[in-house]
Input
Amino acid sequence: MVDTDWVTEATITTWQQFAQIVRPSGCNLLRRLDEFPNAILVSGCQRSGTTMLATIITQSAGMTNYSFGRYDELDAALILSGYVKHTPNGRYCFQTTYLDECYREYYEHHGQFKIIWVIRNPYSVITSLLYNWRATALVRTFNTCATNQLQGIEKKLYSIGGSRWINRARQASLVYKAKTLQLIELMDNLGPDRVFVVDYDDLVLHRDAILRQIYQFVDLDYDPVYGNPVHDKSIGKKSRLSELEKRIVKNVAVPIYQKAQLLKSTHFVTKEF
Output
């Protein structure tokens, strides 16, 4: 473990630095979680709408806004891992999508935290992973949490040449699958009293109804003004995918999404794919 006495807010300002400095210490990314009573953790696959939801909750009455840098999720990661000194003051909502291969850390903490896991239709997520996310971020996430999904010739090719030998749409789809499998395991271990599953498309189409259920789950009062940032402009991104990319998504990601939909904590029907 790196000595944190010298670490300041300015030391780590990007996810690349976080990967280089913090992650090599191993799966100790939630080291300080138990110091934050009744914390709310928002997670899911990257590019699923978790940032929006975590921001809405953080800015609600009764919550503490801990942001000090450019990226709230990075701020959360630095605080929870202990790489930035922070004295707990109130109740917190942390976005924890960055855990990736370290997701089993959730099981190591016994405080009364609750997890809100956002699922989203895979065509939108994978479009965003491919076209609205840095290529290096996709490769890093694929390498850390999705390579165990490789089989046969792909597994052999990866062992020889790394991720550059794997189609990028395959990488993104396998990331989606791996992250959603984490949700299924979390639900099996923690149960619906600790994990709330919400579909992003449901959230934007039934904003106030869904948010009321989420706020009830985390014991917060809901004000309809909280839902103002939620809109439906980002629904239906799959038109940017090529026919090959669509086939990959359909074969790899859609089946696991359909399984995840069975875990939803809300009662709205999302369209079939």
User: Anything to note?
Assistant: DSSP finds eleven helices and four strands in the chain. The CA atoms of residues 72 and 95 lie 8 Å apart. Confidence is low (pLDDT under 50) at residues 1-9. The two ends are 45 Å apart (CA to CA).
